[in-house]
Amino acid sequence: MAGRFTPRPAVTRTTVRGGEVAVPAPRPGTATTAGARERTYVPPGPLDLGLVLGPLRRGPGDPMFRTTPDGSVWRATRTPAGPGTLRVTAKGTAVHGEAWGPGADWLLEQLPAMLGDLDDPDLFEPRHRLVAASHRRRPGLRLTRTGLVLESLIPSILEQKVTTDEAYRAWRLLVRKYGEPAPGPCSDRMHVMPDARTWAMIPSWEWHRAGVDDKRAATILRAVRVARRMEEAAAMEPEAAMARLELIPGIGPWTSAETVQRSNGAPDAITVGDLHLPRIVGYALAGDRDADDAAMLELLAPYAGQRHRAARFILLGGRTPPRRRPKMPRWDIGGL
To answer: Which residues of 53-67 are buried (b: 16+ CB within 10 A; e: fewer)?
Structure first.
């Protein structure tokens, strides 16, 4: 695990396995954007930024996530210290982070965990040929751990029982309208999601304009009213964290798993109740295009403790059943 990060304005902190060393900060106006805090992290092995951070993106127009042609990943987020923007760039065997805003130091301290430093991929042992091939081709897959619950819980609630396009649209509209511009150089293109109080103040007609039905809106409102208790789950073991989230009416195993996969880096939090995943797993591992949750869990039993990671490799393997069912219909709840 990387050592604790103590930011100083005059230096870049370079983390190595076992300690940190200070190196001179770049001159203003060179590679660093003015006002940024910085950190360089050296991961313990191969690291693919797209695979690690990709699950945090909620659609191509996510106001809190973007990528740039140079391979950088940008995140705007609400940390315990306030809003912050993080830019992450892979440079050889190292990863360079720049952060802006009140949450900058918190984001840089959490950078190793976000990039999978607390994950242990060596515990995973492929049991199927397809999984082994996918595992071999993707050595840079590690499981992110953001340490933030609401930023994964709220969009997961929005994704309940609707198409991903509908959920992504709702997230995009609500964050842009009720969030705030991200600190730093992307303030005109990125937004930080609303705080708990702002979520609670969104009027009913705005939920409907975003395509969110009363049931999902009510679940989000119940969650943000106990936001502190929800965020505490990030420090719990995944099973306990899921149990904490499921105390909220409207949050079930699907939503809690989708959340702790990201907030807690949970390698065994397999998503049950999904419309597509059981069929994909069943078809990839057994040629069963009609597998249900029970069949999926039976097939994944050899991966106990690592079932979410196994599912990631299965999805990356690209072997999906032929489509035989119509897509889930779009529901018009507001006449829009």
So the answer is: beebbbeeebbbbbb
Per residue in 178-218, pLDDT (tens digit) is: 999 999 999 889 999 999 999 999 999 999 999 999 999 99
For residue 54, the 8-state DSSP code is G
Q: Which domains, and CATH codes, for the chain?
A: 11-126 (3.30.310), 150-261 (1.10.340.30)
**How much is the pTM?**
0.87
Beta bridge partners of 87: 74, 98
The tokens describing 216, both together, are 């999902």
Share of the chain above pLDDT 90, in %: 84
Q: Are 314 and 131 in contact (CB under 8 A)?
A: yes
Buried b (16+ CB within 10 A) or exposed e, 119-151: bebeebebebebbeebbeeeebbbbbbbbbbbb
